[in-house]
Amino acid sequence: MTNDGEPVTSANTPCPGVDWDARAASFDAEPDHGLRDPGVRRAWAGRLRGWLPGRAGDVLDLGCGTGSLSLLASELGHRVTGVDLSPAMVTLAREKLAGRDAVFLVGDATAPPVGEQRFDVVLVRHVLWALPDPGRALRHWAGLLRPGGRLVLVEGVWGTVDPVGIPAERLTALLAPITGQVRVERLSDDPLLWGGEVADERYAVVAVTG
After folding, report:
1. How far is 90 from 107, CA to CA, in rounded Å?
2. Helix, strand, coil: what percent of the chain each, to 5?
3. Whole-structure pTM value
């Protein structure tokens, strides 16, 4: 199977005409959203294990959607705060992680309502590419990290006919002034992550501050 269509984003991305509350009930039907297939779930769990700290920490999942990555982070022993602009998405995330050390808030991923709280990880998937000023968002997110914290950013350039997204080279250039070590991990060649083969650019960046 080839997945070469439009990127499916979170409720925090400015997609005119998209009613994210209405789409919440079917959001998890996408293989890489609901992670219902055991193989897809194991693939994402393995990647997260490599991206997140080995010790338990505080993870801020921005544009968390229905909380699938939040759940994996929680299962790895982390405390999770999720933020999404869609109340319906947040409701489903709360149900998905009921009884776990997790809090979900309705809010804008670019200015999450977390007050003075600081985190060991800011995790963001498929949000940054669609923001009008990604550099500003990155600077704000870096300011939410504790010393030595890390940004984990899953992004891409989707489609081959009329591609949209943010290339890895541009993202690493934006990170250079605000972070220390930056690692890029290519994800396009792992079909288990997406529920099938993909032909476009998909990657993760792990950037450690300080």
Report:
1. 10
2. 30, 25, 40
3. 0.90
